[in-house]
Amino acid sequence: xxxxxxxxPRCSKSRQTLNLLQEHGIQPxxxxxxxxPPSAKKLGEILVMLGLRPRELMRNKEDVYxxxxxxxPNLSDDDLIEAMVKHPILIERPIILANDKATxxxxxxxxxEII
Length: 115
Prior knowledge:
Elements: E1 3-7, H1 12-23, E2 29-32, H2 40-50, H3 63-67, H4 77-86, E3 95-98, E4 101-104
Parallel strand pairs: 1-2
Antiparallel strand pairs: 1-3, 3-4
């Protein structure tokens, strides 16, 4: 089974989710998304897998969210995706991909539903 985690090592939920995967014998591909953000195309694919709209995946309490006026309801999904690619801190974390499914590890145990 191929498992990928979009991980932020400074985030406790992300660390807990990674540890949970490892406790289940899974060594996922780790993508530190702040260093290597997903492309707009890949982020769009992840959103489809999650069944979410871009705004639902955004961390709206980050300073860049307000500074970039991302609360503007007139912004398109493409605009929001581009903002997340440009400022990956806006992407909710961790995102786990496994078995052609995706989930957000909040709470970390949610990952167990797709592995």
